[in-house]
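_Per-residue structure_
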Amino acid sequence: YLHPGLLLAQNADDPFLGEPTSLHPSVPPQGRGLYLSLEEFSGLRSDLARYYLRALEAAAASESEPWYVINDDQDAITLEHVLPKNPPQGTWTKFSDEDAERYLKRLGNLCLLQKTPNSNMDNDDFDKKKLVLGKSPLRFTNEIAKFSDWSPQAVEARQKAMADWAVRAWPI
């Protein structure tokens, strides 16, 4: 599920992929700068990435008084790089070496995951990672499994959707 604030050109195989056709009018003018800066933001420190992801999960839950708060203990809930830091040679072929460096620390390539599943996945290929990520109760982690493959375009599409949620997580 993507928030209707980001209208995407529909793709029969991947409803999350496609170029945004417009920013929904529900994004207030004062939030557009935040949206545009997060849309392509890269190079996140892991502590900030974890904070952003927890805040986006809370915003997506739309609960003013949530029953559950995502654990912020980095020994329990870790930061998963979908495109791994050290992909084995010949894997992750959708990314050139330059793309891999460019997209590694993009918010769209990151998600929260329990420590054990994250350690077990290590540098697995996307098809194996999808099986684990799809079981997560966290919305932004779980939705990664809905992509048919992981590519620079997938990272960008996911990050644009997250930028739309950021306007709701941090209303200006």
